[in-house]
Amino acid sequence: MKRELLNALLDAKRARKAVAIITQIVGGAQRMVSKEQSANDPLGNILEEAFRFDESGLHEDEFVHVYNPPLRLVIIGAVHIAQSVIPMAVQAGYDVSVIDPRGAFATGARFPDISLHVQWPDEILPLLGLDARTALLALTHDPKIDDPALNLALHSECFYIGALGSKKTQASRCARLKEMGLSDEKITRVHGPIGLEIGAKGATEIAISIMAEMTRTLRLGN
Amino acid sequence: MAGNTILDQAFSWLAEGRKVALATVIETWGSAPQPVGSQLAIDGEGNFAGSVSGGCVEGAVVTEALEAIATGKPKVLAFGVADETAWQVGLACGGKIRVFVEPVGL
Description:
heterodimer; A: alpha/beta; 2 domains; B: five-stranded antiparallel sheet
C-alpha cells in the first residue's frame, strides 16, 4: 500500500466516510473508492452490497476491503447499566460516548477512558452527528433527558435505538413522542423494553441483552 | 473495526521511519478464527500489531512480511489445517485462510 493511499484511508476514517480499497492480488495495484462513487466503479454492484453488509471479500483477482466508519454507541444516562454496557461495547469495537447533564452522575471516576458529555442531549447530539453506524441507548428513565434524545435519534439514520423501561413506560413514552409530532412508523424504531428477552437479572445481564439486540439489529436488520 | 487501529499503528511506525508491511485475510474456509479483512501490521524488526488467525500462523506471516519489506513485492499466502509436515504453521481449528502480504509506504 502506498503511503498516500494509507493517508487517504486514515483521513476517510477520521471524517467517518465509508470507503473501500480494491487490491489486485496479483501485482498488488490498489485503488480507493468512496461509497458515494461506488456506482461509477467497474465493481459497482459488488461494492454496493459490500458496503451495505459490511462484508469484505475476494472477487476473482480483486480483493474488496470495506472500511465502514467505526461503530459508535451513544448512551444517554451515566447510570449503573451504562457502566455494564460500556466494557462489552468497547470490546465489540464501538466508540462510546456518554451524555448526562447531571454532573453528579457523569464523572470521570465513574466513567474512565470514554468520552463524557455533561450536557443536555439536544445540545450535544447535533454536534456528535448521528449516522447509520451509530446506536443510541436512552437509559435515564427521565423523560426530560431521554425524550429529546429519542426525538433526534428518530430523525436520524441510527441503526439501533433502545430505551430502558417497562412496557407501561414504553407505552407512555410512545404517546409523548407522538405528541412531539413523530409518526407511529417512526416510533416503532424504538426498542422498548430494551434488549432481547433472556430473562436478564441485574445490570450485567441487562447489558448482555442490550448488546445482543444491538448486534442482531446491526447484522440482520430490524 | 479493530482493523482501523492497526492502520493507525502502521501509520505511526512509518512516521517513526520504520519499514512496515501489512497482512490482510482475503479468504477463509471453515472455522477460521478471524474474519476476512482482519489485519496484521508488521515493522522491519518483526514487531506486530493485530491478528490474522488468533495466533496460529502469525509467526509465519511475520517472516513473509519481512521478506515483502525486503523485496518490495506483495504476495499471497495460504494456510490450511494443521498436518504432520506443517503443524507449526497450521490452523488447529481446521480452517483455511489466504493472506495478502504487502509492503506499506514504498
